[in-house]
Amino acid sequence: KQEVTQIPAALSVPEGENLVLNCSFTDSAIYNLQWFRQDPGKGLTSLLLIQSSQREQTSGRLNASLDKSSGRSTLYIAASQPGDSATYLCAVTGSARQLTFGSGTQLTVLP
Amino acid sequence: KAGVTQTPRYLIKTRGQQVTLSCSPISGHRSVSWYQQTPGQGLQFLFEYFSETQRNKGNFPGRFSGRQFSNSRSEMNVSTLELGDSALYLCASSLMAGSDYEQYFGPGTRLTVT
User: Fold this and answer.
1) What does the pLDDT look like over A40-53, one tens digit per residue?
2) Which residue in B4, B92, B111 sits closest to B49, CA to CA?
3) Nearest-neighbour CA in chain B from A30: distance (Å)
4) Subunit contact B105:A49, Cβ cutoff 8 A
5) Strand order in the sheet with B74-78
6) Cβ-count burial of A53 within 10 angstroms (0-12 exposed, 13-18 middle, 19+ buried)?
């Protein structure tokens, strides 16, 4: 059974700092990995989708990498802003063809 | 282009009742998936529909069911509600079924069972 772990569970940084969020998964037979953002009480906003054949994806200040063989992904956020404060979730699509989510990293960017 | 819409946004029901939640996907999207989010279990997959057919189902009891209409809109139903069914129910749509397609989520329906 696929398990997705996100470390740390919570992170607080000052504005302007670069930061890295980690995601690991137990079964490397995945089709893709997706990073989402969730604001309190809201739905999920897709940030980046990395197909299993890709190593990384970039969107603005966000860069996500995928190392399928080691079962790891990182989300790099450059020059963090208070508006980046949210919970960040990673999810993998495995052999069951459904998204399996991690428990998320709650990020607070202090002004 | 309008995003995924879910109705109602908030719902309060009593234990033993049943409830129906609705999801309208992004225009042109044909696959709809449902997820349950709780503080204790996190986000868990309920089921996926494509072309009015259930393609995939998560590990939930038979009280949870769904359907998809010819216009791709989807509904999920929970019968004989239990206190533990209190959760945020999220719907996601994608262009097609399958792993290559990005999923776009709606704002969710917050269900409270008393």
Assistant:
1) 888 899 999 999 99
2) B92
3) 9
4) no
5) B5-7, B19-24, B74-78, B64-68
6) exposed
